[in-house]
Fold these 4 entries.
Entry 1:
Amino acid sequence: MAIELTLLSRSYCHLCHDMEVALAPLAEEFAATVTVLDVDADPALEAKYDEWMPVLLHGETELCRYVLDVAKIREYLAGFR
């Protein structure tokens, strides 16, 4: 089963960049794909998440925001093995 994660981000957000970099090894470990979406390019996402950047989603499930919780995400992804 392919795991598809979505990282809601902003181009000028250093926390967003940090989460993307920190997420890469986990995505590789669990063969997950990560789609990075710029919330400023989507008015609906911008209205919903505004200043909560970054936000990591699996479908509609919010996994974390602001900082990647590596232990939590590893445990969550391990449930798909």
Entry 2:
Amino acid sequence: MTRRLPVLVTAAVAALAMAACAAPGSGGSDSDATDGGTIRIGVIGASDTQWDVFTQKAEEEGIDVEIVNFTDYQIPNQALADGELELNQFQHLQFLANFNLKTGNDLQPIGATAVYPLNLYSTEYDDVADIPDGAQIAVPNEATNLARALLNLQQAGLITLRDGGTSFSAAADVIADESRVTVTPVDAAQTAAALTSGSVAAAIINNDFVGKAGLTDDDIVYADDPSGDAAKPYINVFAARAEDSGNETYLKLVEIWHDPEVEAAATEDSGGLAIFKNNEAGELQDILADIQANAPTS
């Protein structure tokens, strides 16, 4: 996930404005979907091949979908909460929990998509052991992915986190005297640029930017493990407002996303990194509730 200046793609602004004018007050009720209304889904990276395949598959099922593109990960959840979208699909459960806790909203996951590894890349070093003491490591600065990145760096033996670290750890939790490297949080979209420009020795890079930067598995110096229980908070999901979490058409769209042709496109878009998940909505909601219940209170 990325965090950029709050700039919404111009086309998305126009689309949302037109939708608001055409259907005031209709922000995602069950009748919108069942009466043949357009279902607006907020995403990051609408140009990805998966969305073309997905909308075609939805159309074959009689469901009209509009993919609304955003460039700032902070906006699609608020747009959903405000009724400007019916669904969004861009985030993992930890990110969703953070939004709910911060804003008091109650967005809920209705279906899983995939887990994407958050790997450490370097174009200069072949192994974690080769990274010199005092080197700078770029990490995404968005809170939830920052915490995940810090935990990965700790597992790699590069840093030590206060109290062992949690999924809510921040840069201030890095114990400098016990760490081999310096952590440099930057906009997630800039992690790859920082690496390829030689500004840092290594970088933890979101899958959204790996392929675009020309990086491959050969550049991974420490691989995240997205398959275990520890990865459950990082399952990516379709999210809806709580009152729409049982909407049958929305749940059908989750099924459509797992069509083999859509998954094949998502695999290509992710550079082969996507590990698909089919957790039921109830399980995802339980994981979300557990994350929120265990969040620090201050």
Entry 3:
Amino acid sequence: MNRKVARQRQKALRDANRRAKRPDRDDVARVALFWLIRRAIDKGQQMELEKFQNKIVTMLTDQGFDERESDAVFDDLVDKYRTGGSPFRRKIHLIYPDGPDQEV
């Protein structure tokens, strides 16, 4: 399959997923990570959160990422998620598939 056909196929797949309001792997992973971190914070499970961070950082470094940078990114996420509220922007294109002037 040539690149043009592959790109068209991927675009069609993304468009179909958008119409179906189907989350992708990254959407699920983002929400799951937020939930896990917030739950550990809310339950005062600092040691468990540190174990989780160590495991995630190890897995990232095994892939070739810098250990200190990986640790810093994880720390930044914990700080961001600690503040409460959802850190996610609403998906306007999913809420209003025909444009933002449409009623839900």
Entry 4:
Amino acid sequence: MLLTVFNILFVIIAIAMIALILMQRGAGASAGSGFGGGASSTVFGARGSSNFLSKATKWLAISFFAVTLFMAWYAMHRANPNAMNMDLGVMGSEVPAAPVDRAVPPVATPQAPAADATVPTAPPAEGAVPAAPPAAEDSSQETP
């Protein structure tokens, strides 16, 4: 509800700022007053529109930024009210200990099997070439 009211106020201030900025005279507008264009400034008083419009634009801009900052702050705190008390998991300062189940006895680590005699050993010298294993006879292939 509060955010809706501030959204409506935000749009009204933005439209008013656009209107006031477009009503102001530019820097080159004073050059035309020498040719009889000075009579249009009497609507806002003897001093002209620059004083009233610039002050009104300044206060609308200040209120526009204040409403913007409040809406951002309100939306951030409304989205996650406990942002400072979040559980960071692994990145937190304290790591929880792993649970220990005392009902299950610890399992012994399996040992490596003993060396087998069929496994070839490394060649004894640097230039020695190991002997080729004996070829097993294959009875499925016949020569014609």
